[in-house]
Design a protein that fits this description.
The chain has 433 residues and is an alpha+beta fold. It has twelve helices and 17 strands. β11 and β12 form a beta hairpin. It starts with a helix and ends in an 11-residue tail after the last helix.
Length: 433
Amino acid sequence: MKTQLFGLLLLLSISGSTLAQPTVLREAKPQAVGVAPERLQRVDQLLRDFTAANYAPGAIALVAQNGKIIYHKAFGVDDVATKKPLKTDAIMRIASQTKAIASVGLMLLYDEGRFQLDDPVSKYIPAFRNPKVLTSFNEKDSTYTAAPAKQEVTIRHLLTHTSGIGYATIGSKESNAIYAKAHIPNGIGTPNGNLARSMQALGALPLMHEPGTKFTYGLNTDVVGYLVEVLSGQPLDTFLRTRLFEPLGMRDTYFYLPDNKQARLAVLYTEDDAKNTVKAPAKNGLGVNPDYPKLAGTYFSGGAGLSSTIYDYAVFLQMLLNGGEYNGRRFLKPATVQLMTTNQIGDVNQGANKFGLGFGLVTAAGARQMELAEGSYEWGGIFGTSYWVDPKARLVVLLYTQKFPNSHGELTNQFRHLVYEAVTVPKAAQPAR
């Protein structure tokens, strides 16, 4: 009887603690999580000063702790020419923040038993069979030689950027030239073309190094997006909309915006030779048309194609922080989220940090450099967006601007510092100063 009673009490305790964990983001006063409002006013001042100096015309920030949104504000203007204020629901080009979403999309299929992480990619995309590794490159005419790789590229290699696949346009001189000759797009504002054709063509090109030996940021997640299409039998945009965006309530996340949402797309900015902030021209350093989210595009880049609001992305991150559940619906198994947010590259390094399956992972050394807590997972996008999740402090934090390049990138670390000064963080989770 005592054993049964103890078991019942334990079950109630577990159930109560589970119910006490908020699973849906809610607006709340900072005091609800023990944060002094005046500390968050320092974030106000930082973003107000930054936008007043026109280092970026506008900025949006969101801070949620324990599922409560304690900070969600916009500063500055959306459009310098018209002085239109930037609003918190502005839709922004999130570029490489697409990678985490596409990676989660693939892991939904992993949870269904559709593949194993160490399966060769060629099992599903035959064009990746018998890969070769670059051995020499001629800058004058982009010719090269290559030798057979010692192993095949696996799905785990793709999700960790250790496959040897480089980037087009923004990668090394070798990958830039070789991919340009083969007409492989970088996925950043490249609405034309077809993902399947491009990824099949990419599979026949040489790797920049042996699979699994280095971290090389590249078109891996575009291949992940195509894998989602192959395994699910659906276009990537359809799969993500039906399996993630609609069930999560991410109503403003798209590869290409519907007509009724296009007016909310924030203006994109850049810098002139004197480092002044100016509106991004139709043709810029990336070869990107700033209005690409408004086009009727056909290319669904899993590595860089999405536009979204800061709130939508916070919902996505909160689902992960909840262990794969949101609003009573299970998306990923808790063990799968754990897999994605722990080191999957072994002794290989990603700068001072490690990498999971779609996320950068902050190490002790990285924490000192980045003003983040060790154990956080994070990433960002080339147009001035960034995020991190701190599991120990139960934090979801995002900062969005729309400017590339930006010579005042110090904003990110200053923002992180002030957020950690403001929130109540367990001592073990405090970032090193």
